């Protein structure tokens, strides 16, 4: 670590330690102590002296630091002696350079059982019982909720000096969260004994969500598709990449069909294809597919330039889920707690079409699928997608597609 950076980090750690009364240790990339602030807990000193060269603490600290780096946030853990620590990584230019270790602390007051377990686990002679009790009972007790916030605060303190690394850690945190979601999806697939890749129907549903600009709905479907790809491929990254490249092409076409600027999407597509081809692990690959989906779908309605992206995405997702019900402007305005008139103006400004036109567009897109893939009558399809009668359905359909529902079905 460079001297100037090290001095700034030391100053920040001193402020944190003296404010919280929690000892801190700055470790290098090998888990060796670079600097410490605050008094070392008497029990830790005793434990190190007792275990000598067999002391397991440094390896546990290093493992926890790497977990913190992987997760992109503070990592709380039990040390070999059963005491609580938390740690944050120190990263420079994307490379792990060390970590800051906080603790030990306790989340509840020690009792005889806890002390007995420590004595037995490490074969500590009973003659040291009184000494171990007194040293452990001197350790600060902090409730779990406060520990979590103290960990977050240490992360903020450490990375206040590392502006260039914040984005990288945020990406890692998102990757870890996405991987957790995928693991749940894969477990569901295992439980249902379904080891096949996603169906053509699922693919069509995803593309329709993208064309409609429904980021939330599209993401839910894509997560399930990625889970199936990962499970059915047996973890073969070449198969996963092949399926991912197919998805990239499909998503880019769907976003252009939805109204996104073709030059922007072609440029994005090229960048994603290059990025995906160079990714080496499955976790990063699955995260980048979701990132790719966000970029393509956001461009359908220029969400990147939106002043209310979260609100509009929530509305679009609601419409896409409830288009076949008796919903109207007032219904959706109430969902986002806005005056209908004000909501109407925001929606048209952000999406580029009025609420009623967008709702009709969604209903007609859904009706196209039914016309192509079912034998249902036009009356039945009209009712199924939310229109009250066939006449109005046919009128809207022709306005948007330049042909009647019957002509559309015959031309299929």
From TrEMBL:
Keyword terms: DNA-binding, Transcription, Transcription regulation
Residue ranges crossing the lipid bilayer per the database entry:
none
Q: Where is the HTH araC/xylS-type domain?
A: 313-411
Judging by the UniProt lineage, the source's domain of life is: Bacteria
- Mind telling me which PROSITE patterns this protein's record contains? HTH_ARAC_FAMILY_1, HTH_ARAC_FAMILY_2
> Could you tell me one molecular function GO term of this UniProt entry?
sequence-specific DNA binding
Where would one find the signal peptide in this protein? none
The entry's protein name is Transcriptional regulator AraC family
Annotated source species: Intestinibacter bartlettii CAG:1329
């Amino acid at each position: 670590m460079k001297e100037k950076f090290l001095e700034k980090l030391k100053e920040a750690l001193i402020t944190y330690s003296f404010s919280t009364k929690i000892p801190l240790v700055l470790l290098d990339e090998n888990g060796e102590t670079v600097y410490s602030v605050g008094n070392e807990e008497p029990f830790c000193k005793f434990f190190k002296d007792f275990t000598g060269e067999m002391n397991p603490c440094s390896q546990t600290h290093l493992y926890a630091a790497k977990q913190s780096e992987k997760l992109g946030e503070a990592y709380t853990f039990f040390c070999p002696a059963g005491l609580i620590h938390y740690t944050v990584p120190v990263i420079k230019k994307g490379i792990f350079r060390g970590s800051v270790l906080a603790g030990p602390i306790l989340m509840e007051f020690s009792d005889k059982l806890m002390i007995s377990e420590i004595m037995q686990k490490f074969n500590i002679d009973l003659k040291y019982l009184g000494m171990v009790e007194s040293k452990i009972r001197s350790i600060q007790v902090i409730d779990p909720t406060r520990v979590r916030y103290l960990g977050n605060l240490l992360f903020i303190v450490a990375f206040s000096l590392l502006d260039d690394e914040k984005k990288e850690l945020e990406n890692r945190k998102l990757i870890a969260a996405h991987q957790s979601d995928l693991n749940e999806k894969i477990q569901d697939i295992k439980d249902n004994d379904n080891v096949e890749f996603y169906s053509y129907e699922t693919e069509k549903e995803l593309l329709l969500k993208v064309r409609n600009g429904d980021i939330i709905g599209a993401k839910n479907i894509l997560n399930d598709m990625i889970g199936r790809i990962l499970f059915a491929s047996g973890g073969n990254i070449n198969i996963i990449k092949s399926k991912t490249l197919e998805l990239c092409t499909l998503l880019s076409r769907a976003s252009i069909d939805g109204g996104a600027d073709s030059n922007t999407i072609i440029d994005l597509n090229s960048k994603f294809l290059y990025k995906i081809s160079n990714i080496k692990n499955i976790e990063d690959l699955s995260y980048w597919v979701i990132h790719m989906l966000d970029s393509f779908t956001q461009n359908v309605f220029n969400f990147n330039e939106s002043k209310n992206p979260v609100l509009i995405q929530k509305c679009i997702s609601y419409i896409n889920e409830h288009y076949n019900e008796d919903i109207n402007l007032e219904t959706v305005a109430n969902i986002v707690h806005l005056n209908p008139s004000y909501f109407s103006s925001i929606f048209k400004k952000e999406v580029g079409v009025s609420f009623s036109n967008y709702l009709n567009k969604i209903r007609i897109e859904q009706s196209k699928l039914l016309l192509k893939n079912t034998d249902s009558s036009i009356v039945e399809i009209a009712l199924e997608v939310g229109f009250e009668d066939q006449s109005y359905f046919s009128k809207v359909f022709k306005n948007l597609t330049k042909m009647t529902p019957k002509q559309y079905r015959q031309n299929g």
